[in-house]
């Protein structure tokens, strides 16, 4: 299975996984660029995986499903029409034509019904975890988001993470403000700058990189607790408090 980014709307990535003439689309917010890719390479679209209800993730579903007969998998949420098969925590879907299967993780926080898809050392996580950042809390509490991120953080270190936006450089600027002495972070900023200067995506990325550089996954680091607490002007006794303070700080960064 090879996975291709299809840029859309300025900073979204729609993902297309391809295997022997068959394809799988993740979060198709726009049908046109996906249809163009399918036509160009004579691919059959078997399945569509959805992570959450925001329009930049679902607006292409209707046209693609109708035109290609793809089966649509996603969370049960009345705001997402056209789902053929609703999934919940632990659901497994088999896609033999694509030579893969995926397991569902419920990861509420960005939205209340947000899910992630995990299989073949690959995670499609929508707007939950970003490179060096995380999604905004539109519908969930900091507790929920922290729990969701902790579950992602406990996957194997080599897991390749496919998030839905190219937010990396902005996230890294914030990460550096939080942790100016983190050498892994400084090295990553250099690597990402090279990729972006060459017009290449900074996504996917390995979970191991996130654990070393993403402040939202590093809320137990003493240096981060100190910085977040200084910025918030109060003591932050637990991991969720540090996470919530970082998220607030980032909102106005
Ligand atoms: Zn979203
Ligand atoms: Fe989005």
Kindly report the spatial arrangement of strands forming the biggest sheet. Answer: 1-2-3-4-5-6
Overall mean confidence score, pLDDT: 98
Low-pLDDT stretches are none
Q: What's the story with the biggest beta sheet?
A: 6 strands, mixed
Q: What is the overall number of helices?
A: 9
- Rg value: 18 Å
Our estimate of the beta-strand percent is 25-35%
Structural class: alpha/beta
Order of helices and strands: EEEHEHHEEEEEEEEHEHHEHHH
What sort of overall outline do the alpha carbons produce when their principal axes are compared? globular
Structure commentary:
The structure is a single chain. The protein is α/β, with parallel strands linked by helices and 253 residues long. 36% of the residues lie in helices and 26% in strands. The protein has helices at 31-40, 55-58, 61-68, 142-153, 168-178, 183-197, 207-213, 222-232, 239-251, and strands at residues 2-8, 12-19, 22-26, 44-49, 71-75, 85-87, 92-95, 100-106, 115-119, 122-126, 129-130, 133-134, 160-163, 205-206. The strands form 3 sheets. Strands 1-2-3-4-5-6 form a 6-stranded mixed β-sheet, covered by helices on one side. Strands 7-8-9-10-13-14 form a 6-stranded mixed β-sheet. α5 runs antiparallel to α6 (183-197) and α8 (222-232) packs across α9. The chain is globular. The model has no long low-confidence stretch (mean pLDDT 98).
How are the SSEs placed, and which strands pair?
Layout: E1 2-8, E2 12-19, E3 22-26, H1 31-40, E4 44-49, H2 55-58, H3 61-68, E5 71-75, E6 85-87, E7 92-95, E8 100-106, E9 115-119, E10 122-126, E11 129-130, E12 133-134, H4 142-153, E13 160-163, H5 168-178, H6 183-197, E14 205-206, H7 207-213, H8 222-232, H9 239-251
Parallel strand pairs: 3-4, 4-5, 5-6, 10-13
Antiparallel strand pairs: 1-2, 2-3, 7-8, 8-9, 9-10, 11-12, 13-14
Helix pairs in contact: 5-6, 8-9
Bound molecules: zinc ion and fe (iii) ion.
Zinc ion is lined by residues 52, 54, 110, 127.
């Amino acid at each position: 299975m090879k996975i291709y980014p299809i840029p859309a709307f300025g900073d979204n990535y729609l993902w297309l996984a391809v295997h022997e003439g068959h394809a799988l689309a993740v979060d198709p917010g726009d049908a046109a660029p996906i249809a163009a890719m399918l036509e160009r390479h004579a691919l059959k679209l078997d399945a569509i995986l959805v992570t959450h209800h925001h329009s930049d993730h679902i607006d292409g579903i209707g046209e693609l499903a109708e035109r290609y007969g793809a089966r649509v998998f996603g969370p049960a949420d009345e705001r997402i029409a056209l789902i053929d098969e609703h999934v919940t925590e632990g659901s497994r879907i088999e896609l033999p034509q694509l030579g893969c299967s995926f397991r569902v993780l419920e990861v509420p926080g960005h939205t209340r019904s947000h899910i992630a898809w995990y299989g073949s050392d690959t995670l499609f996580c929508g707007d939950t975890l970003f490179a060096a950042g995380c999604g905004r809390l539109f519908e969930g509490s900091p507790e929920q988001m922290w729990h969701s991120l902790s579950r992602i953080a406990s996957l194997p270190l080599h897991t390749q993470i496919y998030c839905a936006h190219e937010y990396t450089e902005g996230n890294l600027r914030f990460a550096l403000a939080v942790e100016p002495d983190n050498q892994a972070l400084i090295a990553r900023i250099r690597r990402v700058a090279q990729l972006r200067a060459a017009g290449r995506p900074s996504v996917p990325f390995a979970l191991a990189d996130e654990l070393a550089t993403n402040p939202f996954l590093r809320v137990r680091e003493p240096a981060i607790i100190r910085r977040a607490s200084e910025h918030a002007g109060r003591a932050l006794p637990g991991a969720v408090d540090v996470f919530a303070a970082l998220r607030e700080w980032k909102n106005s960064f």
